[in-house]
Design a protein that fits this description.
heterotrimer; A mainly alpha; B mainly alpha; C alpha/beta; A: mainly alpha; MetI-like fold; 2 strands; about 75% helix; about 0% strand; B: mainly alpha; two-stranded antiparallel ribbon; transmembrane (chain A); cell membrane (chain A); phosphate transmembrane transporter activity (chain A); Phosphate_PstC (chain A)
Amino acid sequence: MKNLFEFIVEKAIFLSGAASIIFVVLIFIFLLKEGLALFGEVNFFAFLFGQNWYPISDPPQFGILPLIMGSVFVTFGAIVIAVPLGLAAAIYISEVAPHSIRGFLKSGIELLAAIPSIVLGFIGIIFLAPLLKNIFHLGSGLTALAGSIMLAFMALPTIVSIIEDAIVSVPRSYKEGALALGATHWQAIYRVTIPAAASGILAAVMLGIGRVVGETMAVLMITGNAAIMPTSLLQPVRTLTATVAAEMGEAVSGSSHYYSLFAIGIVLFIISFIINIFADIFLHRSKAMKRRKK
Amino acid sequence: MRENTKVIEKLAFAILGLATLIIIAPVGIILFIVLWHGLPGLSFEFIFSMPREGMRAGGIFPAIVGTLVLTVGTAAFSIPVGILAAIYLNEYAGRNWLTRLFEISIINLAGIPSIVYGLFGLGLFVTFFGFGASILAGSLTLSIMTLPVIITATREALSAVPMAFREVSFSLGASRWQTVSRVVLPNAIPGILTGTILGLSRAAGETAPILFTVAAFYLPRLPQSPFDQAMALPYHIYVLSTQVPNVSLRTQYSTVLVLVLMVFILNIAAAYIRAKFRRRKTW
Amino acid sequence: MVKITVAGLSIWYDEQTAIKNLSLQVSEKEILGIIGPSNSGKTSFLRTLNRLNELTSNCKTEGEIQLDGKSIFKEIDLLSLRKLVGIVFALPLPLPLSIYDNIAYGPRLRGEKNKSKLDGIVEKSLKASYLFDEVKDRLNTSAFNLSGGQQQRLCISRTLANEPEIILYDEPCSGLDPISTAKVEEAMRDLKKNYTQILVTNNTKQAARVADRTAFFLMGELVEIGDTTKMFTSPSDKRTDDYIAGRFG
């Protein structure tokens, strides 16, 4: 009786252990199932490199290049903002800040992570967009730049905490060696600690990119939603994610518009897959250093 | 020369501190703004009554209930599966390719954009299983998204329990499951709880996965069954701020405030549990 | 009467050999001391007797061990084996439970729920390690509040509560002061009436004080095994003599 119970529990444990891979595969299968139907009528290259996204015109055009470029612009802007800030904050929190405020700063970062993206989007509409409009004398502040700024804040908690981990796992002896040779604390940080934490920093950048590319609601609300090829950060753009979120509600189930949104899902899935594999490789290197330390 | 490097160091540290401030100050400012503009509109009536006049008046009760129901639904599925999965990886699995494959899957699951979860939920639960846009479909979609968070947190909590306890338990003739259920799990519960609550708080604030799987634009009644659609706070905020013209800012702010409060209560609970048990830990 | 027979036992961790082709016998109700420098394979041998070393993933075992004529690898169920062969570890390792629950852990694993029976087991086991009088008023407090010596005797009680036939000690006094050590040794001598005991120790004097027979391990091999008095007065192997005299180790 007892053994039967254990037998069942252990089967459930194994099944749950396998759940993650089952779901990853299921997700991919369902994206393929609905998304590949598009390529019966639309050429794959016309989809990926077409410059016009007019899904409900007659005839419709399903070129997602403007959407890809929208994602690229917003992501680029966000990373340019978030990585230096995140790196600086991670160094400050782990190496410079007095112990008494360290906990406070960490809670602040955790709090930022806790704010739902819809709330940041809302704040973006009400404060950030008008602000940018005035600064740059634009017709509307809802631009790629607004998206970049908000997304930078969303990616920052991830970036800061991973870089912080990486810095903390640099063996103390490295830094002490530099200090013993007469380097100042700051010299030791940028000549020894940061280079030693390089793989962790790279992992943080990768995961930050992943977070930004995948973010949906805030970009939908504040990037202006114009599916045109962007040429500057001060233009409205539309990202891959925002397109799916905005249009799925109106797309008729089983139409090529519907399929095309799933096809965008495939693109997003593959992008996130590649980013995460790279991030994982960097993280493993960083962890290997931690183990050497022990 | 020495003077110079000292000055450079001071300057560098000042810049680092400033960068940290640039990240953290907006958090305070945002919370202040939301409280400042949201509190005046927050009333018993706002929380506990139905929306009226195309959501421009009345309360947000169905959206609050919807979000609570979705969070509970998410917990019901993701907590057991997540904890069992972590037990498998930490206590049962050997170091082999299969384990590595599972780990990579978890990492990828964690990185999949939330809108892709929405598409998946639409494809599998809403369409393929025929649940329709429903609480069931939405909860399951959110569950799968939350799973990696719970697995990772639980695994961390399990591996923080010293190996020696397991060895003692085995040496007394305990089976693996007896060791896990009597020694490892009870000592990992605070960590599991903390991680789980954080995962659920994230699910409660998510919008993209529920867009096509459950969220109702305007449904001024409480959900009746798991196959009912439901309003949800995050989606309601989206609707109020971008889809419906002429909604007073105060209503928008108050709705945002309610969501922020719900999410923060969960986060504070998690922080409290973590702090409390860290102090009590004897080993 | 022979209790344990070890025949041609070898143990490896990855490619490294811990025990080479070991054969020996342990008699019923004797205390067998095992001495030798660190890395001589003593602990690996001990942990094989209740198959605990199988928890170490890179460990490989060859050869045969029989308990009352039955193979511990093939004929005795793993969980029953661990009940029959208890172990006391080098460091006191109470579980993060109360004193009472630590002792009752083993019986409860086997489904014992009867409160008065458990009470009896707890009392009897604590008395056998001379701990009962010191803790009887606080059985429901955390075992971590005990001193190191008390914790180690608690671990002995916990093993006894399992009603084993054999008790293994892996350097049980390495972390204890002389007074606590004396108490543990006293308990061991007392337990001779009912149990077969194997004591791995770095402290040759402890073996001399407690063991009936002593085995000397060196680099994974059994150099010599025999009557403790004889071993300490006139060892037959030069290396044993050198080790006991403290010329290496």
